[in-house]
Design a protein that fits this description.
The complex is a heterodimer.
Chain A lengths: L3 H5 L14 H28 L5 H10 L3 H29 L7 H27 L4
Helix pairs in contact in A: 2-4, 4-5
Chain B lengths: L2 H5 L23 H29 L9 H8 L2 H29 L3 H28 L23
Helix pairs in contact in B: 2-4, 4-5
Classes of the chains: A mainly alpha, B mainly alpha.
Chain lengths: 135, 161
């Protein structure tokens, strides 16, 4: 049983807060992880694209490695990270700037999840069919 | 469990701030507020830039199988895509760098570690932005060998002067 006193004390255990272990925390955690994943891919992606200034052969050779089926699965993961970060980022903006944002933040998170599943499924079907040669 | 008691949380910044959150005594003016605003404004633009980038490169035509030197050459022959990719490069790098900066500030508690991690981050960011910008604007699609003949991997439009 929690009392008003214990709920107002600094929440060392995380109990008595609205945040820890709930939707707000997990969307924050996933937003951070997907952000870092996208950032490190971005560094690699600018470097691989820069090979167009070395020679067509060098660029085509490295791009060829993106075209094998194992990498295609990784690309679906990467696009999944981008999609989640994008939709959840828009939710964060609504929480910050829209009057009803804090009230509806949980409903908006489930909207993000639904949009993410639909767009990622569409991407995955098209991309994997292309990558596995079924087009 | 009383729902009202559980919902009662202390007001933020009410005088019981852990010292690790007040370690920076210097006043940085509006910088943190401006980076907060930048993340939201650049985020909205990046959603559009990246969704079109992914769709036009991976979803239409042959998708990933159509990507090669000739594809990039064809795209960057158009200033529209040069500036699209330039905006993507700059905004994504600055947005990502500020995100990683925030994460370093959150988890690296020792001053020296925090400082050097951020210096490495800023160095990497500078190299990638400068490199990417130069590549977009100095790119030559129709390369020739020593004898002046077009390279085999050149895009088709190079052959018609």
């Amino acid at each position: 049983m929690s009392t008003a006193t214990s709920a107002q004390a600094p929440a060392k255990s995380g109990r008595g807060t609205l945040y820890r272990g709930n939707e707000g925390m997990w969307s924050w955690v996933i937003h951070r992880i997907t952000g870092v994943v996208i950032f490190f891919f971005l560094l690699v992606h600018v470097l691989d694209t820069s090979l167009v200034r070395v020679s067509p052969e060098a660029y085509n050779a490295v791009l060829g490695t993106y075209k094998n089926p194992l990498m295609a699965v990784g690309e679906v993961g990467l696009v999944g990270a981008i999609m989640f970060h994008a939709f959840n980022g828009l939710r964060i903006i609504l929480v910050d700037f829209w009057k009803g944002g804090t009230k509806h933040h949980k409903a908006m998170l489930w909207t993000v999840v639904v949009l993410w599943v639909i767009t990622l499924a569409a991407f995955a079907i098209r991309h994997l069919m292309l990558a596995f040669g079924g087009h | 469990m009383s729902a009202t008691a559980d919902s009662t949380i202390a007001a933020p910044r009410s005088g019981r701030i852990d010292p690790k959150y007040t370690r920076d005594r210097t006043k940085s003016g509006n910088f943190e507020m401006l980076t907060w605003l930048f993340m939201r404004l650049s985020g909205i633009v990046l959603v559009v830039l990246i969704f079109v980038h992914l769709f036009s490169n991976l979803m239409v035509g042959d998708g990933i199988n159509g990507l090669d030197f000739g594809f990039v050459a064809g795209k960057w022959a158009d200033p529209f895509w040069q500036f699209w990719d330039l905006a993507l490069l700059w905004l994504a790098m600055l947005h990502g760098t500020n995100g990683v900066r925030t994460i370093i500030n959150d988890y690296a508690e020792r001053d020296g570690v925090r400082f050097w991690l951020k210096m490495v981050l800023y160095a990497a960011t500078t190299v990638i932005i400068v490199l990417g910008t130069l590549v977009i604007f100095t790119f030559e699609p129709c390369l020739t060998d020593a004898a002046g003949n077009l390279l085999e991997a050149s895009p088709a439009f190079c052959a018609t002067p």
